[in-house]
Design a protein that fits this description.
By secondary structure, the protein is mostly helical. Helix content is 76%, strand content 0%.
């Protein structure tokens, strides 16, 4: 962990931010190439190999990046939260929850809304192939029982490592470099959206919108566990609930893919 008062801290974090930017750029190019190849796969064994590859790579690269960044910039996490709560809306919100203790209720309410809303929407379209999705993710949907477990694993993994990285670590890193909470919040949301370039323009915009909501959830509660759970539930909707409720993939053996 770097010293808050050391003159070199901002420069060190700036180098780390530049390196992380290069990592994201490389991931964007690689994911786009891999996804185009993945969409041509018909054999479930090939699809499962790619699922395993994505699962390991995301855990190592994003999880590792989050660990390194937080080891260096952890001291800026509370400073960023304090800066956000000094915004006019932040002061109002802090005053409200400080007197009524609404934070746990907000987190629980959002989680319940996500779960109930997700199940309701998916159930409503269970008899049609026109399933609501954000961006070009149709090829990612599991096609049989063998792939369903990967859908669940990818969802939980994304909820964990992407929230630790884009809602906790990256904002702290950017704040440590620029000292501006607005820049830190916006930069993390834009980077998160850009990471989904392989899903097309709607995928980027949708991911930015979801990233913004998850950021609000984190900043409002001050607890990273809330957006982790919400993110995992959102992805489980796409990669587990839709395949099970709409396409009944849990009834299909691997050889039927």
């Amino acid at each position: 962990m770097l010293s808050l008062d050391a003159p070199s801290t901002r420069w060190v974090l700036g180098v780390v931010l530049a390196l992380f930017g290069l990592l994201v750029a490389r991931a964007v190019r690689k994911d786009r190439k891999d996804y185009q190849r993945f969409k041509r796969f018909d054999d479930t064994a090939d699809r499962q190999r790619m699922f395993r590859k994505w699962l390991v790579e995301a855990f190592v690269s994003f999880g590792g990046s989050a660990a390194v960044i937080l080891a260096l910039a952890w001291q800026f996490v509370p400073r960023l939260l304090a800066a956000v709560r000094d915004w006019p809306i932040g002061r109002w919100f802090t005053a409200v929850v400080g007197t009524s203790g609404l934070v746990p209720g907000i987190a629980i309410g959002i989680a319940v809304a996500i779960v109930v809303g997700t199940i309701a929407v998916v159930y409503a379209v269970r008899t049609t192939a026109d399933v609501p999705t954000i961006g070009d993710i149709g090829a990612l949907l599991p096609r049989n029982r063998a792939e369903l477990g990967y859908g669940a694993a990818l969802s939980v993994n994304a909820g964990l490592v992407e929230e630790l990285l884009f809602r906790l670590a990256v904002p702290a890193l950017v704040y440590g470099v620029f000292g501006d909470a607005v820049v830190a919040v916006i930069a993390s949301i834009v980077l998160f959206g850009g990471l989904h370039l392989y899903q097309g323009a709607w995928g980027i915009l949708g991911s930015m919108a979801i990233g913004a909501l998850l950021m609000v959830l984190y900043l409002a509660t001050g607890n990273i566990l809330a957006p982790i759970i919400a993110h995992a539930l959102i992805d489980l909707r796409s990669l587990v609930l839709i395949p099970v409720i709409v396409f009944r993939v849990h009834t299909k053996a691997a050889q039927q893919s």
